[in-house]
Every structure is written in C-alpha cells, then in structure tokens.
Amino acid sequence: MTQAMIGIEDLDVTFGYGAATVHAVQNVTFQVKPGESFGLVGESGSGKSTVLRAMSGLNPDWSGNVSLDGQTLGRQRDKAFYKRCQMVFQDPYGSLHPRHTVDRILAEPVAIHGLGDADKRIDRTLREVGLGPQFRFRFPHQLSGGQRQRVAIARALILEPRVLLLDEPTSALDVSVQAEILNLLKRLRAEHGLTYILVSHNLAVVAYMCDRLAVMNRGRVVEELDVESLRRGQAQQDYTRQLLLASQGYDRAVADSFKDFA
Amino acid sequence: MTAREWLLSDTPQSRSQARMGRLYGGWLTFTGNRLAMVGLGIVVALMLMALLAPLIATHHPFAQDLANRLQPPSAANWFGTDQYGRDIWSRVVYGSRLTLYIVLLVALTAPVAGLLIGTISGYLGGWTDIVLMRITDVFLAFPKLILALAFVSALGPGIENAVIAIAITSWPPYARIARAETMTIRNSDFISAVRLQGASPTRIILGHVIPLCTSSLIVRVTLDMAGIILTAAGLGFLGLGAQPPLPEWGAMISTGRQYLLDQWWVATLPGIAIFVVSLGFNLLGDGLRDVLDPKN
Amino acid sequence: MTVSPSATPLLTVENLRVRFPSRTGYTEAVRGVSFTVGREKLGIVGESGSGKSVTGRSLLRLVAPPGEVTADRIEFDGTDLLHASERKMREIRGQRISMVMQDPKFSLNPVMTVGRQIAEAYRVHTKASRSEARRRTLDMLGAVRIRDPERVFDLYPHEVSGGMGQRIMIAMMLIPDPDLLIADEPTSALDVTVQMQVLAIMDELCSSRGMGLIFISHDLNLVASFCDRILIMYAGRVVESCRAGELHAAKHPYTRGLLDSLPRLDDDRAELPVLTRDPAWAAEGGR
C-alpha cells in the first residue's frame, strides 16, 4: 500500500472543562491516499467539522496522531504545512474579508509565503477557477455566492497545495451553482492531483465527489465504506441506512420509523 | 462613459478605481442624509474659519481698547467687546484655531492608542487581555473631567497639558469598543482563512482586524468630539486649560460669567460657538455612521 | 385526500407585484404572480432571488416600506387582504394565517420561556384564562411530538436544540388553529432526519385539521415528495406549475435544468450538467 497522504489515528477532541466537558470527537481513525477524495458525513454535532478543524490546525486542543505525507504534525503548524494544506469554508459570505478586493485577498497568501510574481499567479489562478481578470478588483459584495466561493477556492489554490480540506463547500449555494462548484472542484482535483477531505451532510454530494467516506455520529466514526457500496445501499450500520432513507425525500411512514442513535 | 458610471462600475479595472468607487458610494449615502450635510457644513466652516482667521477677524484678538470695554454688539464690534475692550467676534474666530488644535490632537492620539490596545487585547486573549483590560478599567473607574483635572494639576495648566490629559482620559472607551469588535471578528471564517495561510498575529491585527474596527471608531470619535470640546472648555473655564490672553472659548465664558446679567454677550456668544460646533460634529457622526457602520 | 384547488380556494392571488426602490430606479422582486391555494399543500420552489420568500411575506402584508406591493386581487376566504385595515390584518395574522420562518432563534423572544410565549399567542387571539392557555399549550407541545411538554414549557429558547426550536415555533403558529400556514424554509436549518420528523408533524396537522399550507423551499426533491402541487419561480415569476408527482416530467427548461444539476445517489455521472440561463425565461409573458 502506498503511503497515506493524510493519516488520522485515535483523534480525540474535547471542549470545556470539568462537568461541562463535551467530548466532540472520540477515537477517530482513518487514512486518505494521495490523490484520493475522502468524505466525512454526519449530522450537525457529529464532529465531522471538528475533525477537519483539528487537521487544519485551527483548533489546537486535540490528542492523538495526525500526519501529512508521512510527517507527524504537532499542534502548532509552520508555514510549510500551510503551503501544502489549505481549506475552503462553508459560507462564502463569511469567508472573504468584506473590505478587501479579490486582488488583495489573493495577494495576501503570496506575500506571506514570499512567493513573488503575484500578478501572474493571481491572473492564472483566477482563470483556473473560471473567473476572468474582470473580477480581480471587485469587492466581495459585488460578487454572487458562487463567484465568492470561486474566489475562496482560488485563495486556497494560489499556494499550490497538495491537500484541500473542504468544509461543506456548497451547502450555502443554490443547486444550479452547486453543480458548477462541484464540477470545478472535481476538475481541479484531476488537473493538480489534489487530495481532498470533503465534509458534508449531503450524501449525494459526497457520492459525486468522493471515492470513500466515513459516516460519523456523536463524535465517533460509525462506519467507513466506499462510494460504490453507498450507491448500492449496502450500508452495514442502521444509522447509515437511516441517513440514506432520509436523503431520499419525504415519506410519512419512513419519517415515523426514525429513531435516535446514541 | 461618464465619471459617475466609471465610479459606480461593478467591474473596476484597477485597484484605484475599486477604491474610488467605494468612496463615491459612501459619499452618495452620506449626501442622502440632509442633517449630516448640515454637520459637515458646520465642520467645514469651522476649518475655514481657523484657516482664514486673519481675513475674517475684524480686530486683533489681543488688542485692548479700555475706552470701549463691555460694549454691546454693534456695526464696529459684531459680537460686542469684553472687559478689556477686545473684540469678541475676532476672539471667537481665532478661538476656532485652538478648538481645532485640541480636537485634532486628541483625535489623533486617544483613538489610535485605544484601537491598538483593544485589538491586541481582543485578538490575543488570555493573560494579555486580562492585564490590558484591568488597566483600562482603572482609567474607566474615574469620571473623565475629574481624572483630567488631576492630570492637569499634576502637569501644570496650559493647553498642551490639557490635550494630554484629555487624551489620557478618553482612550479607554475606544479600547473597549475595539476589543468587543475584535472578539466577534476573530472567530469569523475570513480570519480563520488568513490564519491557515500562515499569517502572523501582527499581520492579522494590522491588515485584517484593524480596518474593520476603524469605521465604528471613527463614528464614535466624531460623536465624542462634542464631549472633547466641552471637556477642553471645562478645563479652560476652571482656569486649567488655555491661559490668558489666549481666546479659548471655555476660558472666554469663564471670564464672561461675572458680567452675565448685565453684559450677556460676553459669555453667551462663545457659548453659542461651542454649541454650534458640538452639534456639527454630532450630526457629522450620525451621517458617518450610516456610511461606515458595517451593520447597515 | 386533497380538495381540488378550483373547488373552494382558500386564498386567491392575482397578478402580485412587489418592488423595492434602488439607486437606479426599482428592483422588481415579484412580477405578476397568480395562484390559488385550497386546503392542500402548495410548494413554492425557487433559487435565491427568485422572489419566493417575498411572495410569502407579501400575502400577510409583511413587506416593510419602502417595498411596494400591488396586485389585482389577494383574497383570503372572502376577505380582501389588499385593502383590509391594519386592525383587520392583525386579526388575520396569527389567528387565521400563520407563518413559520427558517430560523427559530430569531423568531422566539429570548427572555421569555417557550411555554409562556405559546400561551400568550393563544390568549391574544382567544382571551382564554391562564390555566386554560397552559393546558392547551401542553397539548400542542405534545401534538408536535415533544416528549416531555411539562419540562419544555419552562425552558428558554437558548436551552432547546434547533429541531426542538422549530417544533416549538410550529406549535406556537398552530395553537390559534389557523386556516392557512405559510412556512418559509421551515426545515432548511435542520438535519435530514429531524427535517423529516418536523415535516411529518406538519403533514399530520394539515390532514387532521384541513389546514392549507404554503411551503416555500429551495429543495426540489423535498417539495416534490412532500407537497400536493408545486409552483416553480424564477426571477420573480412563476415559470411552471404542476402536480408534485409529475415534477419529474416537468417541461420548462429551467425546471429541467435544476433537476438535472442535482447530484444523485442512483447515477454515476462524470460531470453535472450546468444550467445555462436563457434571458427569455425572465421575460414577462414568456414561458
């Protein structure tokens, strides 16, 4: 087996102290191969985004083992890590600085990493995400939701990372725009050989984007399966089967049969 | 393409066009508020008055004419004369320079200090936050004028010391506002995004947090201008601000109050000047809030 | 059973138009929308900016100035909503037509227990006694399947989860026993399983009370499986209306494009077809 691009082992994340402690993630273990796209599925509070934030370095309060390309990662990350691993957020309205132009947003990472040649990089990256140079000097409020998400993707891509962490990248978008962004992400992955972790509550989106996925509930991985099994409905766990049923539209009898999984 | 179309264009071609376009959009919102325009008019008039004082004043502000003391307003002395026969109109005109001097110095120091302390405290949190905020609380615990009085009596009377005292006493509220805003901004996705690019805290505070805090601070400072002018006037009134013969408006009221019943104009006309200028800054602040407040 | 909409329309809307002034003239949010609702579940589907939410709000005259609402007719059970007095409207709002919004956190008063809020809503319209209102509230909380109504009665809004908050909102809106419920994305903020349970409650209440429902949503599949009839809105106009079961045979290219662009579990396309918008769809009169 080739070496994993991302390795997560026995990841535990807790919030708060004493009696108010919340065990948000417990014993989560999975590996993602280079060039693979891995889905993390679950409902709100399942801990799927918390795993992503621990991986990205945004939340330093975790224990366990996290590695990127064979290198074990500490809680404090260095610039070299950020250059290889970038993230795209859920809300395109909240993830762009409201007072910065697209140009400034994209120039910032280039300046931080001292890459130089900012003009050329910005132009090229904007073209890659399907935005022409006419978007370069606009403010976020002059862009639609889909265009903003393209800018957010461009910001992640401009450092030429190996790994993209995608936190519900299309759940705030209209369905027709969602299709455009999903196609774009799929194309970029093929062109650049990127490795993805996609967090989503939408099974159909994960099926379209990913090769394998883990289903999470209450901080634990319930089951790990490949997308083919998901498509054929061959889930081993009741919880996954309930999620599958719920994603197939409203059915009175089905809704009445739902139960809580602890 | 007209200039207006160029400015309001949704597809700016350059950095400068984007910036100008945003300024123009703000200007359109501002001009839509008639009272704000009145405020702007008053503040501009104050600046012109200070700038062109030698042309506007009819007399020298220090020129005494004891034969003509305490004269009511007339064609020769528009606002009348004071107890040394000095022309009150000319003193009010020259006094505008002192008012602007105080206001500008305070506006350039206190909010900047407050902004830095507040954003650092709010962004870094932890011990930095606790220490900086307790210091802020110490300053906030005293009434502003009393604290300013204490500083001036320690430093000695004079207009520069009055400015220093006012600046020292007025930064804590700005630090509080900046900290509160920083705490909401700190957790937003766009800050997370720039952290994930490897940006240092200094870079994030200066380039990403401060630009979002400044607008509400500018509004607050403009609204506080009236208070600053009144504190300066209060210090002048108590004899701790500008020293005679400087035509500071508060000091003028202070000396005029002995004649208030018989020669009302000596104290009242500088008082009206303070009132009009305070009102002007307040209206301007209201208009700026419409333009700058990100919540709207 | 569904009553056919033409038999006894509860609400009739003809040529509804809503516009908002902007820096360059007017922005038209709704442009000539007509429909009727009987005692049935009508879905209004559209993307953001299609005018679906504004349509819902304008029925209760909740579009804030400077927005302007005009129509040839908005008639609810014999009452002309377009020209009714503000007093009359207050009687109708809540008592006869209720509205549920997307996020319960913004619709509930944070400093009042949820039980008291529901009881107040009941007493405003019925002048019932306190104990009677409390009893009715507990019944209603039970009806929206809250397991422990006595405990939930004394909770504050921040102490309840999103799913429970939305059930509480529905209980509050339904306690005056309205004839028509307008629900604007009532389940979009909820997890799929909770969403299904909340829909089941609304479904049950519709059929047992004979209530009409206008269900506004962006989710085509959800509306198709939940409602009886569907209106598809685009750029302020209804571009297509059909029975819910026939949505997958929809004819309008916009509806077709939306359906196609959804990723699906049961097919394995390499690329999702992207909607190409035709300016003719937005043109008035064009279909």
From TrEMBL, chain A:
Quaternary data: The complex is composed of two ATP-binding proteins (GsiA), two transmembrane proteins (GsiC and GsiD) and a solute-binding protein (GsiB).
Similarity annotation: Belongs to the ABC transporter superfamily. Glutathione importer (TC 3.A.1.5.11) family.
Origin: domain of life: Bacteria
EC numbers on record: 7.4.2.10
InterPro entries reported for this sequence: AAA+_ATPase, ABC_transp_ATP-bind, ABC_transporter-like_ATP-bd, ABC_transporter-like_CS, P-loop_NTPase
Species: Skermanella aerolata
Function, in words: Part of the ABC transporter complex GsiABCD involved in glutathione import. Responsible for energy coupling to the transport system.
Keywords linked to the UniProt accession: ATP-binding, Cell inner membrane, Cell membrane, Membrane, Nucleotide-binding, Translocase, Transport
Cell compartments where the protein resides: Cell inner membrane; Membrane
Biological process, per Gene Ontology: transmembrane transport
Domain ABC transporter, first and last residues per copy: 8-243
Reaction catalyzed: glutathione(out) + ATP + H2O = glutathione(in) + ADP + phosphate + H(+)
Membrane in keyword set: yes
Identification of the protein by name: Glutathione import ATP-binding protein GsiA
Membrane topology listed for this record: Peripheral membrane protein
Main location: membrane
Gene3D superfamilies from the UniProt entry: P-loop containing nucleotide triphosphate hydrolases (3.40.50.300)
Pfam families documented for this protein: ABC_tran
GO function term, MF aspect, one: ATP hydrolysis activity
Any one Gene Ontology cellular component term annotated for this protein: plasma membrane
TrEMBL record, chain B:
Localization per Swiss-Prot or TrEMBL: Cell membrane
Stretches that traverse the bilayer: 35-57, 98-125, 225-244, 264-285
SUPFAM superfamilies associated with the record: MetI-like
One GO location term (cellular component): plasma membrane
Residue ranges constituting the ABC transmembrane type-1 domain according to the UniProt record: 100-285
Matches recorded under Gene3D superfamilies: MetI-like
Family: Belongs to the binding-protein-dependent transport system permease family. OppBC subfamily.
Highest taxon, organism lineage: Bacteria
Bilayer topology annotation: Multi-pass membrane protein
Record-given protein name: Peptide ABC transporter permease
One Pfam assignment: OppC_N
NCBIfam families: Opp2C
Keywords assigned: Cell membrane, Membrane, Peptide transport, Protein transport, Transmembrane, Transmembrane helix, Transport
InterPro entries, alphabetized: ABC_transport_permease (IPR053385), BP-dependent_transpt_permease (IPR050366), MetI-like (IPR000515), MetI-like_sf (IPR035906), OppC_N (IPR025966)
Major location category of this protein: membrane
A Gene Ontology BP annotation from the UniProt entry: peptide transport
TrEMBL record, chain C:
GO cellular component assignments: plasma membrane
Family listed: Belongs to the ABC transporter superfamily.
ABC transporter domain residues: 11-260
Topological relation to the membrane, as annotated: Peripheral membrane protein
GO molecular function, one term: ATP binding
Gene3D superfamilies: P-loop containing nucleotide triphosphate hydrolases (3.40.50.300)
One annotated GO biological process: transmembrane transport
Protein location: Cell inner membrane
Keywords: ATP-binding, Cell membrane, Membrane, Nucleotide-binding, Transport
Protein name: ABC transporter ATP-binding protein
SMART domains given in the database record: AAA (SM00382)
InterPro entries for the chain: AAA+_ATPase, ABC_Ni/Peptide_Import, ABC_transporter-like_ATP-bd, P-loop_NTPase
Naturally occurring in which organism (per UniProt): Skermanella aerolata
Chief localisation class: membrane
